[in-house]
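In response to reviewer comment 3 from the previous cycle, which asked for concrete evidence that the modeling workflow produces usable outputs, we include below a single protein chain processed end to end. The sequence was submitted unchanged, and the resulting structure tokens are shown without manual editing.
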Amino acid sequence: MMKVRIGGWAGQGTVRAGTILGKALALEQDLHVVQQRSYSAAVRSGIAYSDVIVDKDELNELVIEVPDYLLVLYQDTLDEWWDIAERTEHLIVDTTRVTDFSGFEGEVHQVPAGRMAEKIGTSKAANVVLLGSLAGISDEIKLESLEKTIRVEFPEKYVDLNVEALKKGYERVKR
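The workflow returned the following structure tokens.
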């Protein structure tokens, strides 16, 4: 079983990233997936996140207490979740917007996702950069599955940009 939480500030694409991850694992890798999400629909402010639980067997767990992978796109989110972060195995942070993770004793993967996405053409692809990083770290997530899902989930004019963001994130942690 694998548990992933993707968190950031509302508007950073955390829910979209969770949807892409969940669909890639369910439809392309034929795994059982549960996704939960939380965001402020009324205004673009506050913490937003997406939880994805995946397993080859049917799932009985629907809630993540402590994720195996915690992806964070915004400092306030990490500050709010510090007690969870301290217990997770892998912390993946967008160092463009997350600068203080001192004291974390697990494995930290520092990815300047926002800056990498800006170089590609838009900072809005930082969420996809982190998904690529997750695929590079986890043996359970196939990069090809994420790419196929991106090709279906995004409008055609944004596909190439997001595929590039995905691959850049993957390459960043594979070096």
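Residues 24 and 148 are 8 Å apart (CA to CA). We consider this sufficient to address the reviewer's concern, and the full set will be provided in the supplementary archive.
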